[in-house]
Protein 1
Amino acid sequence: MNQLGFPILSLITYLPLVGAFIVATLSGDDEKVAGKARCIAFIFSIVVLALGVFVWTQFNPAIAGYQFVEAVPWLSGINVEYSMGVDGISLFLILLTLLLTPIAILASHGIKTRARSFFAAMLLLETMTVGMFAATDFVLFYIFFEAVLLPMYLIIGVWGGERRVYAAVKFFVFTLAGSLFMLLALVWIWRHLGTTNIAVMTHSHISPEAQTWLFLAFLAAFGVKAAVWPLHTWLPDAYGEAPIPGTIMLAAVLSKMGAYGFLRFALPMLPNASAMFEPLMFVLGVVAVIYISYVALAQTDMKRMIAYSSVAHMGVIIIGLFTFTVEGIEGALFQMLSHGLVIAGLFICAGIITARGETLTLRNLGSLAINMPVFAAALLFFTLANMGLPGTSGFIGEILVIVGALKVNFWVSLLGGAGMVLGVTYSLVLVRAVLFEKYARPELSRLKDLTGREYAMLVPLAVLVMWLGVYPSSFTHAFDAPIAAMVQAHTAALNPHIALAMVTAK
Amino acid sequence: MTDFYALLPSLVLGVGGMVLLLGGVLNKKTDTTPAVTFGAVVLLLIAALLNLTAPDGMLFHGLFTTSLFTRFADTLVYIGAIAALILSVDFNKREKIARFEYPILVLFAVLGMIAMISASDMMSLYLGFELQSLALYICAALARDNLRSTEAGLKYFVLGALASGLLVYGISLVYGFAGTTSFTALANVFQKGADTGTIAGVVFVLVGLAFKVSAAPFHMWAPDVYEGAPTSVTALFATAPKAAAMALFLSVMAGPFGHLTDQWEMLIQIIAVLSMVIGGLAAIGQNNIKRLLAYSSISHMGYALMGLAVGTVNGIQASLAYIAIYVVMSFGAFACVVAMRRNGKAVENIDDLAGLSSERPGFAFAFAVFMWSMAGIPPLAGFFAKLYVFATALNAGYDTLTIIGIIVSVISAFYYLRVIKVMYFDRGEPQFDRTSAGAGFVMVIGALATIFFVVVPGPLMAVAGEAAKALMG
């Protein structure tokens, strides 16, 4: 079966589902159930995190293909297998999900109404997300990809802010419409290649004309999920209206699903179309970086400002992916991890303010640094990481992307890099408005500094941000092999004579 | 003796129904409805079990056939009828329409459905068709003091009679030009092709059948009848007769008319597309949950017919699997509708569901599961039903049909989503009456089957595949 002789990936995927079931069947009065449900959900998410770390320790970074593979016949008659596996690309995205779920559960302290359903939905979300990253069959991937919508729709719509219904429906309709195109692409590929196994699909040849259409279909599906400009308009509403734990999962994990889709499907399967659409993707990425940074600057609400900064960072990731250089793609992947951690930290900071009964309108905040020094340090730290300060994870990702882009196109590199400068502007505006005395009100001086629970959320994130920033190779060495293989295959697909030369040289 | 064993389920239903009828008529002192309903459920269960072990073969010199295909469709009919009867016990009592005739009518309707599924001759087909239709017309008008229910019954009867007329006219044309009514003989005759008169006959038969499965453009009756009939009866309409008529559709098109694929293929495609589109778009404007489900069932029939349009064994397999999953989702959804009662009165508007998820999380969750499944959102059963249909259609080269299907299914996701939105996001206090044990039971069974289908899709698909092979030979 695999090196452990045990379906560990399925265990990681479905253990939260068991937790969700237990949480959903709790009974008792609301107050007690809320605490119990949170506790059970937290324990389950910690256990799967431990299992995930165990997988990491057993992971062999030298192998480019899938590891811990599981395969069972599943849909009879149409030849679909239930198959799972991880490689260097999906490993850390799974770990990111596993890490952020318990943190998001800790951040759900304020959820008092219908707590059972909420924690069940969170665990369900974890199952669906992990399953999606671990799936190595396109049908299975599609199922998880779509199923993520169900818990998220409820999380936004039931526990969200004032315009929650609008935000939830917009989120659902945008993503569903995008996925429709992916389903069309899926059935097309299925019919023409006769398989839905991702590894086999990656090594099959698809005619360049068909690739163009398939790429557009993938762009619709993954572009919506990754909030590529101009498909991002659902994002500020969803991020803004979702409850803080929902926002953390959306921004840190769900937005990565789209980028992961590009990396897993669009790039390796459609090399010609990817090369053809490279300029378009660069333009979209650069517009996201520059234009959205300005939009972020104009926001008056802390959550929405962070949300737009997230869209801008997704632009950097898109640029990195489409450079087709090892540096660029590694930078994009690194940026995905880094952005996941940093944005989670920022939204937790926003949650800390709302937990103290304050609004997130920047005009009503200020001078928090006086009474909440530790909070101020944390917010400042994550903001600096967000703008890519050397020594933090954000720097490594962005510098790799810029280096990768420089190999391809100077202007893309320059304009993409401009994002770092623009990031500084809105980040500083944010920090000044929240922490320093621009809009100080007397009520704000009564706010207390961080509690133990809030330390437990922020410290692991901060430590990881530093770890990624100071010693990135403990992560990058795992994705060297698959990404090198991907870039090589891409070059070979575009230049058949080079491929032939490589084969003969071997 | 083989004949006798194959006939046993029908005998149990027929004779048992008579006995129950006598019992109900003779006993005037006490209310016999619960006992008769219980008896009918037991008879259906016995028939269902006997049906599972029934041998293959011909009955009455080729008037009826039994095969894995008929047993598969029969089982779906039994499941639908049993679920509808369980739902009717409490609902009919609360609506004060609990008459002991209802379960007996259901038994006779089921007998008719069994007959028409197993029919292998145009005459026996028509016999079964009429037996089930007449029983169902009366069921629709069960609440005879209620204007809407009687209207539904009358409308169903008039339009149903018209459809029967078209069907029998088509049969007469086919008989006139082919000289036989036996399915096998017809198939032999049509091997050499068919002339215009026969084609006209086939078209009339097809229209009659399309009416029964309420496929567009012959669907007009469905929303009114679904809305007017008592909910317990609507639950029956949406499950057992749909499965039976669909099975009949498949067996007629693949059997006697199997060699005329070129002639009817286009018609089935048109009907499938129209059903999907009209069912999907018309449902958006509905506020009554029963009308919404009526339109939804029209569009589901369109998806199921897509499998037939493909015309291969895989296509029939996909259709059969679709119907099976549809039956489960439908009785589940109707169990939810049956449970929508406030202050002793049935409520049917979608807005009445507002706030349900805070008050009755389990109920709301089950309803949401059925809605999501009908919308075809993975990992629920409805997604796989659609996936199989789309995959086979695409593999057979029906690209346009598949693309239309996928687009419509996304559009129709919108109105299913609205039900969930109302239940989960809107504030309100539905204060529904306590759900009866029967409705709760049906709801739970339906929800579990819908959710856990993803874990073991194999058996159903394998059986559907074998049944399709049995039909196509």
Protein 2
Amino acid sequence: MSGVRLPFHPRLAEHALVRRHVIDGEEHVVLHDTRTGDLVRMGTREWAQLAAADGTRDLAGLTLAAAKSGALRRASELVVILERLQTMGLLADGIDRADAAPTPSDRPLFALPDFSLTCDASGACCGVYGSILFTRHEAARARVALPLVRDGGDHEERVFTPEQGTDASGSLAVALVDNCCAYLGGDGRCGIHAAAGEAAKPAACRIYPATFVDDGETIRVSLGVECACALDSVGVAGGAPLVADTARTGADLPAGARVIALPALLEIAASVTAPRAAYVAWSRLLAAQPSPADPVAALWSLAAAVDASGLDEAATLAALASPVLPDVNAVLPWIRALSERADSRVASASTWRSARDRSLTASREIAAAAASLRDPVALATAIATASPDPAGEAFYLRAVIHGHQLVGRLPLATALRDRAVRLLVARAMGALAPALRRPLTVLEAMLRGHGIEVYAREVRS
Amino acid sequence: MIRLVLAPSVTVDDLDDVAFGLGLVMMNILPAGDAHPAQTIYRTPDRQALVHVINDPRAAALLVIVQGPDAAEAAARFRARTVVAAQELVNA
């Protein structure tokens, strides 16, 4: 006996994401801890044992379920797996989980003005993320349309794992082949689209890269600037709108659209909160101002203003009117934290990801750029150098602010500094690899999609 | 019904290995109750015998009870793969 006390009815916690990867032809199951960025690799048989741990079975029931699936050899193996996960804080007990509050369907939509997306259909975004989500219905449709993909027609579990934990009643994450969606065709086109039409594609793919945030007044429709096409579309008319032109309220959003509700109180600085309405007013004030000449200076100055004066209008406008470039010593700890997180990501991913995996090369690009800025002289030069893509960075700021992407995860002041650091690192990525297309979008996709964004909580002055 | 008393050195893991090797199909796990000790119940692949692995902490060793039309054969196959201290024929 190891002394580890297991939950009575174990299940994988929501922050544990299990993903099935096919790496250079070999199948692996990888469990990602979204709180720490750690990962656990296991065999498909171990996962088959664990998959039954959905919070409804005690150890005997789990053992029986594993035996029923043909995955059990020794009951003690299952105990060892559970104990390891329990030690890592990845197990929960029972089936209780919070339900998201429904968004009022009559809430008006407020889409990012003057933007439409022209997708290049290269399939690049189908190979970057760690999770590509399907509803159960969409998964079933894909398995019918393309039953031979990973033999998924007969075996759902070979193509899909639960989005979170072991709760298979929610959305499902598709297996990734060298980090590309299992249904991505060799020509870079969506296999589901080719086999069954665009409407058969998962809603998340059709909606991408749109984001929806309910701020209590409207549902802000914006986008994650995570795809080169997003920046390529700036100032280009004739693309697809983020939501249909006829959509007016939440009820008109496509099925599968996930609306994130801003909480009533938002953390804006360390131990300082503000009502949601005050933040929305601040965001509206910001959006009404002309694009700053230097987004890095503007973001850093806004952060200082929020630290000093909260969401005060005069302080906000003063920060925007006279933005000050950040001091190297103030930025250095941020660069160091991002560099360490990216290095750790590269070290971990190199042990199991394929050389063909785009997320691995992107991690390396980010790590190299961050490392290049760890030198104070290089960082000072980078801070003082004008943006190589002012229009792209201005659009990025506009999308982030309109989409309320600065709040919820980090205190607002921290998030503003985080975004300034991202711009600096993206510029360095472009300088190191001039052929890299829209480095800011690569960085954004990796930070959110692969959890590198946790670096902002690891900044030590 | 045949009762096998296993050698004290035989562990639950050893028995799991034997069950896996024989292709036994796990059917149920019963916690200890007033009427019986904790046990894991298997069947043979051809459904001709039930195998109860009894883990009673009061006993010095694991017990296996085999019953069904092919109990004798199933017990023999079990014996061939583990160390049995004693075998008894028990009236049901």
